[in-house]
Design goal:
This protein has helices at 6-17, 26-29, 35-42, 45-51, 68-75, 118-125; strands at 55-57, 81-87, 93-100, 128-132, 137-141, 145-147. The chain is of the alpha+beta class. The protein has one domain (6-160).
C-alpha cells in the first residue's frame, strides 16, 4: 500500500475506517494502456457506480499524488458568518440568527474533479457520495445531502436549483 499514490492511500483509509473491505479505483482496476480492457470495463462503469455502497470523490485533488485530506485542508478557510435580525410575519423581531454563506456546495463545485465530464456519471449513478471538496466535506445520498458545517441537510434536488 505504501507504493500507492497518496490519494489512493487516503481512499483505502476511508474505506477501512467506514468498515468496508473492497475498493474500486478505476485507474487501477482498468489496464490504462489496453484499449481492449478499457472497452470491456468502461461499459460496466455505470453498473459499478450504481451498485457501489458509496463513491469517494476527491474533489480538490489535482491528481492521484495530491491526497484527499491534504488537498481539502490546503483550501479550507473560516466560514463566513453574519448575524441578521429574525423577523416574524407581523414585522416584529425576535432577536438575531446566525447565517453562514454556503461554501463549496456541490452545485458550485469548482475543484479539478468537477471539470471532468465522466465524473457526472459517477455522481448521478452512485447511491451515495462522500465528496472531499476544497472547503468542506459533503455527504450525498438519495434522501439528502449535508456537509460538515450544516448537518441538517438539504434535499438532493437542491443541487440542481
Amino acid at each position: 500500500i505504501e507504493d500507492l499514490p497518496l490519494t489512493f492511500r487516503d481512499a483505502v483509509k476511508i474505506t477501512r475506517q467506514l468498515g468496508f473491505r473492497y475498493l474500486w479505483i478505476d485507474s487501477l482496476c482498468i489496464i490504462q494502456d489496453s484499449s481492449e480492457d478499457w472497452q470491456a470495463e468502461s461499459t460496466a462503469m455505470g453498473r459499478i457506480y450504481k451498485e457501489a455502497s458509496f463513491t469517494i470523490a476527491a474533489e480538490a485533488a489535482t491528481d492521484s499524488k495530491a491526497g484527499i485530506f491534504e488537498s481539502s485542508k490546503k483550501y479550507r478557510s473560516d466560514f463566513d458568518t453574519i448575524e441578521v435580525p429574525y423577523f416574524r410575519m407581523d414585522g416584529t423581531t425576535t432577536g438575531n440568527m446566525s447565517v453562514q454563506r454556503l461554501l463549496d456546495s456541490p452545485a458550485e463545485a469548482r475543484g479539478p474533479l468537477s471539470q471532468r465530464a465522466w465524473t457526472l456519471q459517477e455522481d448521478l449513478l452512485s447511491p451515495r457520495t462522500l465528496r472531499f471538496a476544497a472547503q468542506q466535506t459533503w455527504w450525498r445520498c438519495r434522501e439528502m445531502q449535508c456537509n460538515e458545517r450544516d448537518r441538517r441537510g438539504l434535499s438532493p434536488e437542491s443541487r440542481w436549483n
